[in-house]
Design a protein that fits this description.
Order of helices and strands: HEEEEHEEHH
Radius of gyration: 14 Å
Strand content: 25-35%
Strand order of the largest sheet: 1-2-3-4-6-5
Distance between the termini: 33 Å
Length: 123
Amino acid sequence: MSYEWIEEYCLSKKGVLKDFKVEWNALRYLIGGKMFALQGGDKEHKPIITLKCDPPFGRHLREKYPHITPGYYMNKEHWNSVYLEGNVPDDVLKEIIDMSYELVLNSLSKKAQKEIREGLSVE
């Protein structure tokens, strides 16, 4: 599958900033200074995106899709990596991105959440 839409989709969410972490050779998508998506490669340089998930939903996804694995170099309970050369449907990947964004957004202070939701700049 082709996931060329990922960057545009992540950046379309309120308050999202993107940076490049040189030592990880990966793009990070941040909300309120916290990462909700990491796009890079595994040790064989296969392209992946790593996203936060509700743990039961993450386990369900890993059982259903062989191209979704526990988060690469992340907490295996809360993070999942999606291999971008795999066949996870676009709507499923968008659902995971949305969940990751919301989980991280909801972990921010109430003030930061309000500012982001109202379109004010928060870093």
